[in-house]
Design a protein that fits this description.
By secondary structure, the protein is mostly helical. The chain is built from 5 helices and no strands. Helix 1 packs across helix 2.
Length: 140
């Protein structure tokens, strides 16, 4: 049971770290042929697990050695919280902007102007009457 637990923990942790060779892949899935970094990083991870270090201690060790780019997901505190909040804020702002734009378009609509037939020239009045008769509706 201990081996299975350690292997599942190893699998979980190597999917929460990035390979630092520049391939932009998860450490546990780096399939970069001849990757100079993944085997060493995976060995460091195995050593950390065998030394009974906590997940946070292992992450801290990797961040100290390789920088914050080694983490597959940003942390949820400090400035990194922006990476979690920003997509939702941008979506909410875009949705609000769309709603306001649609409302503005609907407010700007005007009803069609009905022509005053009393002030029209007789030829125009006759043409409109002919259109009304031919189309069967009340005009334009």
């Amino acid at each position: 049971m201990g081996a299975t637990d350690a292997s599942s923990r190893y699998n979980d942790l190597n999917h929460r770290l990035m390979c630092t060779c520049g391939c932009a892949q998860i450490l546990g899935e780096c399939n970069h042929v001849g990757c100079p970094n993944s085997s060493g990083e995976l060995a460091e991870l195995r050593i950390g697990i065998s030394d009974n270090k906590s997940d946070q201690q292992i992450f801290d060790q990797f961040v100290a050695k390789y920088g914050a780019v080694v983490l597959a997901a940003p942390t949820t505190h400090g400035f990194d919280l922006v990476a979690w909040v920003a997509p939702f804020a941008v979506f909410a702002a875009a949705l609000l902007g769309t709603i306001l734009l649609v409302r503005r378009w609907s407010v700007g609509r005007t009803e069609p102007v009905v022509a005053d037939t009393a002030t029209m020239e007789p030829a125009e009045r006759e043409r409109r009457e002919q259109i009304r008769r031919e189309t069967g509706d009340g005009g334009f």
